Amino acid sequence: MTSNTKAYRASIFHLLDDPRYKKQAHEFIDDGLLVVCDGKVVSVGPAAAALAALPPGTEVTQFDDGIITPGFFDLHNHFPQLSTVAVYGEQLLGWLNAIIPEEEVYKIPEVATSRAKIFLKEYLRAGTTTMVTYGSWAKESVDALFSEAERLNMRLVAGKVMANRNMPAGITTTDPESDYEDSAELISRWHGRGRLAYAVTPRFAISSTPEDLHSAGRLMRENPTVYMQTHLSENPDEVKYTLDLFPGHKSYLDVYDHFGLVGDRSIFGHCIHLVDEDFARVKESGAVLCPNPPSNMFLGSGLFKFQKAKDYSVRLALGTDFGAGNTFSMLNSMENSYKMAQLDGYSLSPFEAFYFSTLGGARALSMDDKLGNFAAGKEADFVVMDTCCTPFISWRMEHAKTPLEKLFVLMMLGDDRAIQRTYVFGELVHNRDA
Ligand code: GUN
Ligand code: ZN
Questions:
Q1: pTM of the predicted model, to two decimals?
Q2: Which of 187, 296, 173, 181 lies closest to 232, judged by CA?
């Protein structure tokens, strides 16, 4: 420990394992101390002993009503939907027709830059420190997003949307090579730079020709450490249209599989209408499923099968799918996950919900050696949740005795108001009370 050492005193909560399979998978320390140095976790433990071990003069910040937890992961959202969130009245395909033309404006660097600042700031206000994001079709949108994330030293995985059919002119290409070339250029500029990583991003099978999906597969083969994100089995009309466009495939997942897009770097958004065979293939490949309950409720897309995901023990992490999801907040996504699971006969515990938004997210990105909980040496991305963030939540908390009760109240009643502070690599990047 050096003079850069800082300590944070509050309740501390993190996951050590997947609570779906392990009974005691979390640690909750009522009066804890998180010690951080040079952007990394030094230790976490009960405050009484840890305070005595600190170097003399170490700055200790205390949060009397706080619960410190790892920064949230949002594994699916859309930057160029900042200006179209909350569009009324449609399900997926009609809604896309309504909102997609607006994505064109993100090709203008000044527009993309100013909006990237708003977008990432809102996520930090909501306690999200790592996310996987769709840019627009224009590579300028992704340059703007990565530049701002780099300035904030924030972990970001993002990619330019690949699309070459069934999209309005202005956000698609007629040149079959351009999606490949623009993506390759962005990979060489951004992937692995600081805390940034690239995701090859075919929007969905409907908006790509077989040649375009082939290009996506080629990018994955040529760049084995990049991620791949796309939409999968979100809505019944979408599934049907996909199988009309790609006849002869046994399922929607099988279309992506044919082009080499199903592997352990693949993140599939939604996955509501999967069949058993798909779950088995996802398990075998190591791919990640990412339900986005705020979006799935908003668009009426259906209910993600949490029980099946558990039965097949597939990797699972949550997203918001902002701007079909009408929130930046993973607490809201956890709340909607709970309600969605209830409708399908599954009681999602707060430990599971927080797991899917922290350590589960890190595991989904194979970043759990660096992030997801407070093991010594991990990167210090964390949030302070305020259990007294509104007069009523404060009053309700007095009736919550156990960690489970407290976390459940926060996830059912809380949102960005409950995020008192957000830290990225040990630095304060959001202070609600400033
Ligand atoms: N499928 C293809 N594009 C989109 C999108 O932008 N949002 C959602 N929710 N689904 C999609
Ligand atoms: Zn989406």
A1: 0.98
A2: 296
